[in-house]
Amino acid sequence: MTRDSADGATSRWRGVVTGPRPGRMRDRRGRGPRGPMALPGPLSPRSVPAHRPPKASFDLLVGEVLAALEPHFTVEPDQVEVVVEEAPLLPPEWTDDVPLSIVAPIPDGHRIMLFRIPITQRCLTNADLEDLVWTIVLDRLAEVWHMSPDDLDPRPR
């Protein structure tokens, strides 16, 4: 782009940065933070946790809860398998609340299915989500092992 000055000479406009951009950084279209600190690049080859999709974040949270409960899995005789599903398949005539989890028998023990979407939709913050996941996992394990959830909870009271 060129511009004629008052003396008739032609000069080039140069893109000169004079300071930070006005306004605030935005999370455009709900895709999370963008830029050199959030996306893979030479400064962060594997990216940072801000780049983790919601499903992976939920799986990581469930994994942390199960890792904290690992001593109980080695002591208890019943095999328990914990899986995460997106949402339950419900018949069209279903009128009750959508279940957050279910326990299903399998040949070697029990399978606990956690439903990610109904759980996350009932939480406003990450702290609420963590508390709800802890409560659901402890309640279901207590149901399978015939114990009190308070006896399983390793968190300080």
Offer a quick outline of the entry.
The protein has 157 residues and is of the alpha+beta class. The protein contains 5 helices and 5 strands; from the N terminus they run ββααβββααα.
Main features:
alpha+beta, Zincin-like, 3-stranded mixed sheet, Metallopeptidase family protein, Zincin_1, Zincin_1_sf
Topology of helices and strands:
Blueprint: E1 2-4, E2 10-12, H1 54-68, H2 70-75, E3 79-85, E4 101-106, E5 109-115, H3 116-121, H4 126-145, H5 149-152
Parallel strand pairs: 3-5
Antiparallel strand pairs: 1-2, 4-5
Helix pairs in contact: 1-4
Pfam families: Zincin_1
Region (Disordered): 1-51
InterPro entries: Zincin_1, Zincin_1_sf
Q: What is the strand content?
A: 15-25%
Order of helices and strands: EEHHEEEHHH
User: Overall mean pLDDT score?
Assistant: 79
- The end-to-end distance, rounded to whole angstroms, is 67 Å
Rounded to an integer in angstroms, the radius of gyration calculated over CA atoms is 26 Å
**Global outline:** globular
- Alpha plus pi helix count: 5
**CATH architectural designation of the domain at 53-91 and 98-152:** 2-Layer Sandwich
- Placed side by side, the strands forming the largest sheet appear as 3-5-4
Query: Regarding CATH, which class of the domain at 53-91 and 98-152?
Result: Alpha Beta
The strand count comes to: 5
Here the CATH topology of the domain at 53-91 and 98-152 equals Zincin-like
> Which class best fits the helix and strand makeup?
alpha+beta
Portion of residues within helices: 25-40%
- Let me know the largest β-sheet: 3 strands, mixed
Low-pLDDT stretches: none
Protein name: Metallopeptidase family protein
InterPro entries: Zincin_1, Zincin_1_sf
Region (Disordered): 1-51
Pfam families: Zincin_1 (PF06262)
